[in-house]
Amino acid sequence: MAIATRSPLRLNSPMSRPSLYNSQRRVFFQSHAWFRAQPRTKPICASAIKAEAGAQKEDIVIVGAGIAGLATAVSLRRLGIGSLVLEQAESLRTGGSSLTLFKNGWRVLDAIGVADSLRSQFLEIQGMVVKSEDGRELRSFKFKDEDQTQEVRAVERRILLETLANQLPPEAVQFSSKLAKIETSENGETLLELTNGTRLLAKPKITDPILLKKLAKELIKNWPPELLKLIDLTPDEAISKAPLVDRWLWPGISPPASAGKVVLVGDAWHPMTPNLGQGACCALEDAVILTRKLADGIKSGPESIEGALRAYGEERWPRIFPITIRANLVGSLLQWDDPLVCSVRDNVVIPKLVRLGSMLEHTNFECEPLET
């Protein structure tokens, strides 16, 4: 089995205050909590394999020590199943913006035994304020008023990754290990080939932090002063630029989650825009669902592994597809430029029609503790 993820990319200006900041142009979500923002998930991939003669044999290999990769390894370990995590970088990739985790993400972290250590380090976000481009307040919400069980916290990616990695023995994560290719042998075994002579295709881009900050300020020059000030207060080296990407899992068109003993999790299968704060949460959900399916398959015998991976994809698709579409549509709504559409949105849709409870229905996710 192999799992691979590719994260949504975006223009990130790590900020000290807004967390549910969801638009590059027209509408802003401001959270009632203070935290430092850092970037989001990186590519991961995992594979359950038996290698050919002469190669190191591992039953389960996870390629990529990102959120989904490490969460899968921790989940497997809690069920007594070992795995090897391969990461092409020399250490955990700790740069980036903070991650907004809703209650479905916290249910998974509870299930794998790391939630409490994270809760003690990050404030719970009480609510959010939606503002127009000129700073006018359109709507405010308190999460508990809509759902007493809701839990929203912004977690630094670095701390989340380190917390997950600390649940694993040191030898379980192997750094400086880049995947070159995956092959399937004649007898159906999966072989991952690594290389240390990696060649990268370079593309011109702005990397100077001072120029990036200048570009960021130019892009948001019409935003309210309080948000402009946050850019000024952000360290130059904490600003990055990247495009937003997503992929919709169209029924009958999109590839399945698995092929043979290779399976995709997280953003490798379903990258989504950050407008709902569900990228990391859904990656965590993937990890526990895949772990349960895989554990059942292992108990039934090697011939059941491929069926277990297909079952994972069949269970996850009906949940992931609507969330991916909703995230894209919410982002489109918040970033319209047409004056008439913006007027209807700012004076009718958001103030009078939007209900936070229905907007957060996708955060309902039950997850029993993973225990041997």
UniProtKB/TrEMBL annotation:
Entry annotated with the keyword Oxidoreductase: yes
Domain called FAD-binding: residue spans: 59-135, 258-319
SUPFAM superfamilies the record matches: FAD/NAD(P)-binding domain
Keywords from the UniProt entry: Monooxygenase, Oxidoreductase
GO MF terms held by the record: FAD binding; monooxygenase activity
Classification via InterPro entries: FAD-bd (IPR002938), FAD/NAD-bd_sf (IPR036188), MOase (IPR044560)
Keyword Oxidoreductase on entry: yes
Domain of life: Eukaryota
Family that this chain belongs to: Belongs to the 3-hydroxybenzoate 6-hydroxylase family.
Protein name: FAD/NAD(P)-binding oxidoreductase family protein isoform 2
Provenance organism: Theobroma cacao (Cacao)
Phylogenetic placement of the source organism: Eukaryota, Viridiplantae, Streptophyta, Embryophyta, Tracheophyta
